[in-house]
Amino acid sequence: MAMSCLETIQAYGLRSLGYGERLLPRDDFTLCQHFTLIGSGLIWNVYFGVLALLFGFFLANALALAKAAHSPWLRKPAEWFIFVFRGSPLFIQFFLAYELLVLLPKAGINVLGITIDTSWTTRAWAGALFVLFLNTAAYSAEIFHGALKSVPKGDVEAADAYGITGWSRFRRILWPTMLRLGWPAYTNEAIFLFHATTLVFFSGFPAFQQRGDALYYANYFADKTFNPFIPYPIVGFYFICLTLLLIWVFGLINRRLNRHLPSNLRGRIRLRPQLIR
Amino acid sequence: MFEYCADPSQLSGLTWLSCYLTTGTHFNFYRSFVTVLMLLAVTAPVALAFGFGGAMAARSHVTPLSLLGRGYIAAVRGVPDIVYFLFFVIALDQGIEWTKHLFVCDDLSQPVWNGTEFRVCPAAKVPLATSSAIWHSAYAFALAVFTFALVFGAFAANVLYGAMQAVPKAQLETAEAYGMTPRQVFRRILVPQMWVYALPGLSNLWLILIKATPLLFLLGIQDIVYWARELGSAKTSGNNPYPHGDWRVFYFLALLVFYLAFTRVSEIVLARLTRRLSHGQATLGGEQLRKAGA
Questions:
Q1: By the 8 A CB rule, do A88 and B224 touch?
Q2: Three-state DSSP class for B113?
Q3: Domain count of chain B?
Q4: pLDDT tens sequence across B40-76
């Protein structure tokens, strides 16, 4: 039974979230099915990317400050955290985290008479998000720490001369400048993070009821049709669109961060994606 | 391996562990570390060669060649690399078999891509179904090396292209003024000087390449991730002389430590190399070395 493209979108548009048709297409694959199902999987990539970036941003700021601190009690843990997450492959981190989470007692943990359920932590939406959050926090912390170190000396001296000290010096002088200087590199980090989300369902976390991300479905099609030339370029197309959108959004923030500078001194964001982490 | 390992069920403690860690399957695990190191040793120079070619093409004055070089660099960036890893392995395999199919098969009337199947005649299979297992793994490894080199070559091309642009123009103009041909300028002036500019980018790339090696698992190679999963999963006394629970977490912990150590050692070596290459260069690093020596 052939479906029209609109019907296909209705059936599979939200398949990655568990809505619509239960069974994935098995034969007579159409281009529309490819685009719909892979696009549906992209919801997960966006979910992982956006939330990990959002939470990671706060932890990254804290870690960058901790790494710049004088006290070794703050500095050393931050340095180790950053080293462990930047020095090892994300792929291994996913596997290790999954195996650790599996070890949690299945029946739940009993805290003060209330049983806390633990089974959800091994699901990708929670477990993989947690790993991505820690990972991007480590990478971003290194960027922000570098930016903090390159805040112009004159800015800080001027603040001192005006009698701005302590928290208000940090909030009004150091922090905005740090963000401004680190922003182009942070944009690239955001792009890598979105690319890294494609690893989730290939690294231990099972795709519950075949609810996977864009690459999961592309891999499904390539396995079924033995034709890699359609699904993978579609993933590529979606990710190029996503990357352009990300550059646009981060570019807007960059403009706001730099709005006080003469236009020839504003830092421009250049796309410099790296590889796998 | 040891003589006292004859009956593992009688052992305990460290003796048990020493026997457990020296079983045949564990040696396969240790050998897979060599596979990873081999992949790095082979891929790094090949990727560098690809990168050099790509950078030279991108710099070329011939428009199609320059477009090809730029296109190569641009195409690999912007799309998640894992997509390439999954794509190239099938695409290359099919490409090779299809080419062979055109030459060795008698019956070319049937389409190769037939609905949900990719079908070539038995003689066109690479490697042949009759060839020994070692050829199958060698072929898979070669495909993996080529895929890694292709992806990392684009990133190396990007770094080398930038490094070539960074060599001071005055150096090249002086060489031209002395009557060197463009080829001589490239070989004698540009290439020897560009490495110091390329090194930060290339060191970064090396660290990333190290961290990309677990993706071998996705290419269907029995690498360290494969063996860690295999050995770590729970073993019952029925099928295994060394029964244990689910120990995968320890195996992955070991892999994590391996990668951290490898990264750290690489960082130290690369820092030394940077110092050495900076000698006598007209850069900030070179100037510091000169002052320290004086």
A1: no
A2: strand
A3: 1
A4: 999 999 999 999 999 999 888 888 999 988 888 877 7
Contact list, A88 vs chain B (CB under 8 Å) = 211, 256, 259-260, 263
Chain B CB within 8 Å of residue A54 CB? no
**B244 - beta bridge partners?**
B235
**Residue keyed to tokens 């990317």:** A49
Domain range for residue B92? 3-293
Report how far residue B39's alpha carbon sits from residue B84's, in angstroms, rounded to the nearest whole number: 17
Give the DSSP H/E element, type plus range, for residue B118: strand B117-118
Which residues are A116's β-sheet partners? A109
What residue type is A168 in one-letter code? S
By C-alpha distance, the chain B residue nearest A271 is B78
Set of chain A residues whose Cβ sits within 8 Å of the Cβ of B81: 195, 275-276
Span A160-168, average pLDDT: 91
CA-to-CA distance for A210 and A216, rounded, in angstroms? 9
**For residue A271, pLDDT beyond 60:** no
Pick A96's closest partner by Cβ from B80, B91, B253. Answer: B253
CATH at residue B47: 1.10.3720.10
Of all residues in chain B, the one with the smallest CA distance to A247 is: B78
pLDDT in tens, B145-203: 898 898 889 888 888 988 888 888 898 999 999 999 989 999 999 988 888 888 888 88
Walk me through the domains of chain A, giving residue ranges and CATH numbers. 30-265 (1.10.3720.10)
Find the angle CA(A274)-CA(A99)-CA(B208) to the nearest 5 degrees.
Answer: 15
Q: Which pLDDT band holds residue B116 (cuts at 50, 70, 90)? A: low
**Is the model more confident about B243 or about A263?**
B243
Structure tokens at B290: 């000169």
Would you call A236 and B248 a contact, using CB atoms and an 8 Å cutoff?
A: no
Q: How many CB atoms lie within 10 A of CB B175?
A: 18
